[in-house]
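mind reviewing this fold:
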Amino acid sequence: MNNASPKGIWKVIGASSLGTLIEWYDFYIFGSLATVIASQFFPNTNPTAALLSTLATFAAGFIVRPFGALVFGRLGDLIGRKYTFLLTLVLMGGSTFAIGLVPSYESIGFAAPIIVLLLRLLQGLALGGEYGGAATYVAEHAPANRRGYFTSWIQTTATLGLFVSLGVILITRHSLDADPTVSIAKFNDWGWRIPFLVSIVLVLVSVYIRMKMKESPLFTKLKSEGKVSVNPLKESFGHRANLKMVLLALFGATMGQGVVWYTGQFYAQSFMENVCKIDFEQSRTILIWAILFATPFFVVFGSWSDKIGRKWIILTGMLVAIVTYKPLFGKMLEISTPSEALAASSEVKESTAAIANTTNVLRTQVTRATFASGMVIMTTQKDTVYASSATQVSKPDVKVSKVLGTADYWKMVAIVFMMILYVTMVYGPIAAFLVELFPTKIRYTSMSLPYHIGNGVFGGLTPFVATLLTTIYTSDKLVGLMYPILVAALSLVIGAMYISNKE
């Protein structure tokens, strides 16, 4: 086997990881800004419907990932790994940059969400081809007995892409104005576009680096021997033995891994912001700290899988997630709910402003309640006072934002860290696990499809389905967890019964 030298493998990992990290950044910047995007591209008459529409658009990018896996997986097995995931990088970067240029709903009406949806679909197609290419490329350069360790570095890129997206958002928001109120208004108005637009610079840098990379040695050997697959799709899914491996990989591993991944990061963020009502900035810094502390464990579990096998590490991650999700999310809810019946201090400010082209007045009342635990709850209520009657007012628009005290803040970081630790268990070894299931000549196609159905469809739908369940069963704020728990439980049973540890 023509594996890369120790120095060469780190160049391969560095170049592959940088490009993949940038693609994940591009893909997840949309989810990180879901609430802001909802107000920009959808009618704001119903904020909940707008948020669900945004999450559905976010999910659409995941649903098309399997199609991207088929299209680009086939190309990767026919023409090579390098040029295929170079193409996906350009497609992803261009789509992300374009989202930053789309006019708002107020400017072009329903054309805005339609254009954003189309660009989101292009992002999904690109990502469907990127991951399989990068994971295969690194695995085919790595020695077999250290494949879990070396491919685990690629596994860090998805979480680090989310980390970078959150960091860029916060830096952008703070740089717009010294006054926090003004900077938030500017960010929500136009500043949110900056994280989308700057991605083009990152993409160009990565394209330059990837252009200098050589083709995978295993694929080069296949090509020189004339053994490249003539029809990767037929060989991957038309042969019973290989199709069995594809289905086992999907239902016994990637399906459960996908819901654990998106619950521990995206649904955790959505739950903090929309259910716990934690301040925008705090919810993101909580996630940033948790990601920072947990990310090294991708490599720990990836390396460990070289010694004891991939299967049981992945399935154990699913098991602890199933057992502890409800207690952990319940604790998040408890932390964000003041234990005191009354605030230690309370301050109310009221202001009015004339509504343009009418004789009516917009009244804004802001209540700031501070509790002994250090928690501050800001309640902003807006209503319209009609000129025809001083007592006639519109239905108030009420928004609640909570800033946690120091002790509660770090408790929340610890909880999210635990959930991301589960992510590292199921995700760290998965690339090596998938690569080893399939022969070299159809590896790109065969591993990409179950990965992107498991992560893109089952995993990517987690924030949308979980949020939807909470709007249907409003009395149970933890009902959204039933989706990832049931999917992970099904995957755990199938994986334990039908996948052998050597696979």
Notes: The mean pLDDT is 83. The chain has two domains: 6-336+406-498, 345-402. Residues 6-336+406-498 form a domain with the Growth Hormone; Chain: A; fold (CATH 1.20.1250.20). Strands lie at 345-354, 361-370, 376-385, 397-403.
